[in-house]
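Memo to structure team: turn this sequence into structure tokens by end of day. - J.P.
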Amino acid sequence: MFASFLVSSLVCSAPALADELYPAAPPKDSAFVRVIQASSEVTSSPAKVGDQSLGKVEFGDITSYVVVPGGSHDASLGAVSSTLEFSAGEFYTVVASGSALTLIQDPRSTSLAKANIYLYNLTDQPSAKLTTGDGKVEVITGVAGGAQGDRAVNALTTDLAVWLGETRIATFPAVSLERSRAYSAVITAAPDGPKAVWVTNSTR
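Reply from structure team:
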């Protein structure tokens, strides 16, 4: 009887344990939105999309994605604000530059068997690229100013570099690219020259 009671207790508690172990799935009508601060004259600004706060964002920072219902939402980064439209099931990056917010629709991850890389050229330079650290293998090329490029690659650990034209902007050493994960390299313009950051994409 004790064994029967124990089994019954475990079965009854399984849903509760599952709720604790796994995060709740977002509603089906959700969109996923993050923010990049590309204005070098702004040191730190609070960001918000709809009723979701993304905290304070420094120049060159890229936030995690937050979940909002699909549709129109007010987005703001410091004193810059706009009403933007987000389609359910899609991913977006809101770029703050000067007195405007620009909306970039991000591609969905194209492969669960590979790592997915996004490159954002948030400068006025016409051509950005991502290569291996030695510059010999081009991973993403020809990304125009204000645009984004992407590519799925095999999982591995390698050095990576970002370039504007033939000028190396930054090198990211020993980057671990994992299957089914997504990563972003972001180039922004600053008075003392372009800057670049590398982040692992995440949702909160």
